[in-house]
Amino acid sequence: MRRSPRLLAWSLSACLSFAGLMQPAQAALIGTAPALAAETAADSAPARLQATLMRAEVAQALQARGVDLDEAQARVAALSEAEAQQVLARIDQDPAGAGDLIGTAVFVFLVLLTTDILGFTKVFPFTRSIR
């Protein structure tokens, strides 16, 4: 019976000591232009990649090379914003039908290796997931 009030007092003092660390939330109105810019910047790279995959000629080219379109879309969805921007930069820089085959193969290998290590996919048997 004596421990209960003492435990309550310690718990209450611990809670109150952390109450000073909390900061109140601040809200302000933002304009339409900054909100629209933030929205388009947030989903622009992955959305552009998904739109590129949905084009008929891209889908046909992927299927001709033995790539499953659903798997490609899942991998694009697993990319981070920075990775999607890197892929878009490569697409914008390389001329159509040309490019460095070895560089592209290394890039695809590194993306697949990263997704394997992060646990999103299981392509390579020699990797272990961090999950």
TrEMBL record:
Signal peptide: 1-27
One Pfam family cited in the UniProt record for this chain: DUF6627
Swiss-Prot/TrEMBL keywords: Membrane, Signal, Transmembrane, Transmembrane helix
Bilayer-spanning residue ranges: 101-121
Domain of life: Bacteria
Name of the protein: PA2779 family protein
Lineage of source species: Bacteria, Pseudomonadati, Pseudomonadota, Betaproteobacteria, Burkholderiales
